[in-house]
Amino acid sequence: MVKLENLVDVILVKADPIINQPTMRDQKTIKSLSKRYSTLVLAFNRGGMMELPKEKIKELINSYGGTRFKFFNLRVPSGSPALLPYLPFFWTWAFAKLLWHRPKVVHACDLQAMPPCYLYKKMFGNKRKLVFDVFDRFGMNYVPLKSKRLYSLTNSFEERLAEGADVLISVSEELINTFQRKPKECVPILNCSEDYHMKRLTTPKGNTLKLAFTGHIRRHRGLEVLPSAINNLTEVDLVVTGRLEDEKLLRSIRNISNITYLGFLEHSEVIAVELNSDAMVALYDPNSNAQNQYVVGNKLFEAMMCGIPIITNVATKIVNETQCGIVVEYDVEQISQAILTLRDNPELRKKLGDNGRKAFLQKYNWTAMEQKLYKVYEQLLQNPS
Length: 385
Description:
alpha/beta; single chain; Rossmann fold; 42% helix; globular; six-stranded parallel beta sheet
């Protein structure tokens, strides 16, 4: 018999790093759930065998609104493919924790966390609920398209598990539609931003257009084409910030005089960079993996929140609907022309930025998404076991 103090409403299982590399999606989801439910997070600390210092855990708990955390501590190589042999150890640990705490709802984040959650659901049936929250489709994101059989097997495995969930959540309707097999209840909860809007902290200098790129420093995210697009443009500065994942790529962009790399910043500092920019850039190479055509990234919504336009080749439906930016192909000439258009038309920049801010306030904000998340949980828990 499980002790009452061990009972929780929700356990969120996350196999990706949540200590030093939390995504904004992680943070928003966990904070929102902890406002209404007794929430515990089971996470994979891939940094080593040692327990985390109590001060670090206390800091983490406070930053997530009092949510409790338990960590599986094991040093593993970086990168998703290298992680695969170690996942069964994490799954075994997570399944044991689920049996000990007996949550009413288990919330699995991505395929890497799903197997122990699926097994827990199968063991208890309708007495316990399972939410499958897909940030990235594993096969589309990590399996090369040329490996057709492995790609198909990975997608089929993910869909088999998804079909056993009570609810499938994902970051866009388009990504949900890539599932051929899925539960009856599917809910898109977009990766919208919270509202950090404030006035510009600095005064723009002359007519120079200040662009912001605030993603990871890695290939296939625009940094191969952006330097060529701005290299010969006058009165255009590109500010880059993000986690460094490709030293060679960083060295190549640092050779360009109108590009400044600020390093890896805290989220509040990133928002300050965006708020003090004239426009943002979010680009994804459509040929690098299958999922890039379905991306609806948080940078679009941060641009909306800041009231500045975005230059992008993804989430084109939202951009065209809201008229909040310029849609381009993953092409140097088109990107360069879009930058020139914004540089030479401050009135257009203001109009597109205002459109984005209006759409953010009306529809594309985390408060609205939070209510959708609560509705999912209310429906799951309306017939308690």
